[in-house]
């Protein structure tokens, strides 16, 4: 029996499995290319927010990039030091800003002048100085899927250079704001160095202009977005990536901050799902599995490709099929027109590169229980989130009977 078959038998399916040793390797490789400078790697919690994953990140020395107060609290709860936590996002509520300030995290990443004014008012009320960073939109095309492209003026994220400059000047003169960082995040699943290089150059120039105004920025945050290999796409050479940022920075003395999500956890994850049955509609072959779009929505949402392998069927003859789930939507599929061997009830399929934006984007659609998550580390497996029961799913509702 293969390792995955044994895990499927022990924990049931559908199931997420994350190899923590892979996370360690990816983290170390990134830290290594940054070693010529002070750097802080802040894992983007939204990619995989399981507490054990975050605890592992804390153990590696990572910080966290959060996009809600819930994520900030998760990071703190999992043992990430407060001085390594960044709070980003275009729409922060007053109560979220207040709680972030009370928790004294590293910095709030601001995305508009309006937001800066709210932060200033709340900091003043609390009698604290808010450390802030500004997300600058460098208007650069990251050449990725439009849903995960964020660095163009047509996207809702960040502010343009001129507004950023005004904001920094305002912040410097404010008693309640301390501008400590500058930030860009141009998109996700980026597979070329050039967009990063261009964005880093635009922001490094702004940083030099700010320096001339006696605004001293300490953190240069290059966001996330490093792509991984789902299919045959080229990926970024990390060394080249780091060097292009270093060369943009030149002699500027700043701490480099990087916010990878997918890069750190994407490849570590496997989604295990069992075949319920095969079905043929005329010439079309469907493999119907027990996992569905509510468990892993990336294929439906972004037409994302995930490699799928049938366990224990090496060498068997293959034919074309669609792999679909039981949810009542035509968009409920994991793959279309891929080649798989003939499959029977209970055969196991392994959906690869599922560690990022998998479980975190899952839902209870069709009153399906969210699946269990398992960690693999040093050859051992352990449950890090139990499967939801029907009672869990309805626990917060009232039937008014
Ligand atoms: C989503 C996000 C990230 C992580 O993106 P990846 O493509 O997963 O690396 C980093 N920073 C910010 C601000 C984000 O919104």
Automatic annotation (TrEMBL):
Keyword Manganese: no
Coiled-coil zones: none
Protein residues bound to substrate: 262, 298, 302, 329, 357
Orn/DAP/Arg decarboxylase 2 C-terminal domain residues: 16-355
GO aspect biological process, one term: lysine biosynthetic process via diaminopimelate
Cofactor(s) needed: pyridoxal 5'-phosphate
N6-(pyridoxal phosphate)lysine PTM sites in chain numbering: 46
Annotated ranges, domain Orn/DAP/Arg decarboxylase 2 N-terminal: 21-265
Keywords: Amino-acid biosynthesis, Decarboxylase, Lyase, Lysine biosynthesis, Pyridoxal phosphate
Pathway annotation from the record: Amino-acid biosynthesis; L-lysine biosynthesis via DAP pathway; L-lysine from DL-2,6-diaminopimelate: step 1/1
Family matches, as PANTHER family: DIAMINOPIMELATE DECARBOXYLASE, GROUP IV DECARBOXYLASE
Described function: Specifically catalyzes the decarboxylation of meso-diaminopimelate (meso-DAP) to L-lysine.
Protein name as catalogued: Diaminopimelate decarboxylase
